[in-house]
Automatic annotation (TrEMBL):
InterPro entries: PEPTIDASE_A1, Peptidase_aspartic_dom_sf, Plant_Aspart_Prot_A1, TAXi_C, TAXi_N. Residues 1-21 form the signal peptide. Belongs to the peptidase A1 family. Pfam families: TAXi_C, TAXi_N. Keywords: Hydrolase, Protease, Signal. Residues 100-430 form the Peptidase A1 domain. GO terms for biological process: proteolysis. The lineage of its organism: Eukaryota, Viridiplantae, Streptophyta, Embryophyta, Tracheophyta. One of its GO terms (molecular function) is peptidase activity. It comes from the Eukaryota. It comes from Prunus mume (Japanese apricot). This is Aspartyl protease AED3.
Length: 435
């Protein structure tokens, strides 16, 4: 079968210069990054140098995505129960798969890098010259006139995990997925679209082990002290929105819109909830789920927000398929099957509701406090290239970890604008064609 565009979630990323991958495609021009609007690329889209060159069947791609997603959810489950900045679930190898990337120019004169976008992480970090275990293309701090390292007595040094002092430089070590990384805490001019942010604090990677660290670097869109929101509070007023590209679309990008200017006016909001144990995550109140016209019977405890255990619902850009705790998923899945009718269903990897005959896809509505989001067919099911298999693109949270999180993932967010408004403690969703 032909390779689907959403094979993009494979983690075999090869890092090389942006110019090498993008220069020949007018759709990918840096000129499209304007003002405070950045293009958002699917990590293996034709506009991305990280796209896979190895063809695989549709079944192989779905199984691979599902496996990576399970690891991502274990990572998120580890975050909610711990107080360190980037903890992981104890004793498990966890591979994260950032699926969307943006362009950033770093340094003076600027060097262009691609950064993975992650709403559940805070600090930015990039591979730097001399890094052991990083790829061959890195940010060369020696060629920038505005680069500097931060000392051990700075306030920022107290905000990173496991800070240590090497001479006068603040360094830190942390885990990311199944990998470890060591970085010097540094400051540099970051330019996003046409907005220059001088003195942006980030981790300049000096050593990595394992295969989980995104070779292109990472931009944290959480709300912790070293996140983009916190460091650009005066510029963007802790407000941003994004519209994610569909898996099906090859030659377009979504957008990351920074700041309150230009955000949609006609949009419904739900309150953001605060979890002091993991303040970076974007928790919301999911009160009920409707399949077709029926609100399914879900035990209240399966949706309830509990800061102590980390239970509740988050919006996350790094998970591919929505995961619901088992009682909630079973209720949704059973009503979905009932509405589809008498057709026999089959399983594919972690998906347990797949059909090999055409059927009418019932709508699914997430009912949040103050806001309902009804998903169209493209956000509910995935189809094989030949159209011979169609699966409900949701699954139960893994039962091999203490998973209490419902995660509204990026497939269900595609072709919607998700607006994060931290000062007013609210999250908005509106339909928008990212094409």
């Amino acid at each position: 079968m032909a390779t689907l565009s959403f094979v993009a979630f494979s983690v075999c990323l090869l890092f090389f210069s942006l110019a090498q991958g993008l220069s020949n495609n007018p759709q990918c021009s840096e000129a499209k990054d304007q003002g405070s609007n950045l293009q958002v690329f699917h990590v293996y889209s034709p506009c991305s140098p990280f796209r896979s060159t190895k063809p695989m069947s549709w079944e192989e791609s779905v199984l691979q995505m599902q496996a990576k997603d399970q690891a991502r959810l274990q990572f998120l489950s580890g975050l909610v129960a711990r107080k360190s900045v980037v903890p992981i679930a104890s004793g498990r190898q966890i591979i994260q798969s950032p699926t969307y990337i943006v362009r950033a120019k770093i340094g003076t004169p600027p060097q262009t890098l691609l950064l993975a976008v992650d709403t559940s992480n805070d600090a930015a970090w990039v591979p730097c010259n001399g890094c052991v275990g990083c790829g061959s293309s890195v940010f060369n701090s020696a060629k920038s006139t505005t680069y500097k390292t931060l000392g051990c007595q700075t306030a920022q040094c107290k905000q990173v995990p496991n800070p240590t002092c090497l001479g006068s430089t603040c360094s830190f070590n942390t885990s990311y997925g199944s990998s470890t990384l060591a970085a010097n805490l540094s400051q540099e001019t970051f330019t996003l679209a046409t907005d220059a942010v001088p003195g942006y604090t980030f981790g300049c990677l000096q050593k990595t082990t394992g295969s989980s660290v995104p070779p292109q670097g990472l931009l944290g869109l959480g709300r912790g002290p070293l996140s983009l929101l916190s460091q650009t509070q005066n510029l963007y007023q802790s407000t941003f929105s994004y519209c994610l590209p569909s898996f099906k679309s090859l030659n377009f990008s979504g957008s990351l819109r920074l700041g309150p200017v230009g955000q949609p006016k006609r949009i419904k909001f739900t309150p953001l909830l605060k979890n002091p144990r993991r303040s970076s995550l974007y928790y919301v109140n999911l009160n009920a789920i409707r399949v077709g016209r029926r609100i399914v019977d879900i035990p209240p405890a399966a949706l309830a927000f509990n800061p102590t255990t980390g239970a509740g619902t988050i919006i996350d850009s790094g998970t591919v398929f929505t995961r619901l705790v088992e009682p909630a998923y079973v209720a949704v899945r059973n009503e979905f099957r009932r509405r589809v009718g008498i057709y026999p269903f089959q399983t594919l990897g972690g998906f347990d509701t797949c059909y090999s005959v055409p059927f009418v896809v019932p709508t699914i509505t997430f009912m949040f406090s103050g806001m309902n989001v009804t998903l169209p067919e493209d956000n509910i099911v995935i189809h094989s290239t030949a159209g011979s298999i169609t699966c409900l693109a949701m699954a139960a949270a893994p039962d091999n970890v203490n998973s209490v999180l419902n995660v509204i993932a990026n497939m269900q967010q595609q072709n919607h604008r998700v607006l994060i408004d931290v000062p007013n403690s609210r999250l908005g969703v509106a339909r928008e064609r990212c094409t």
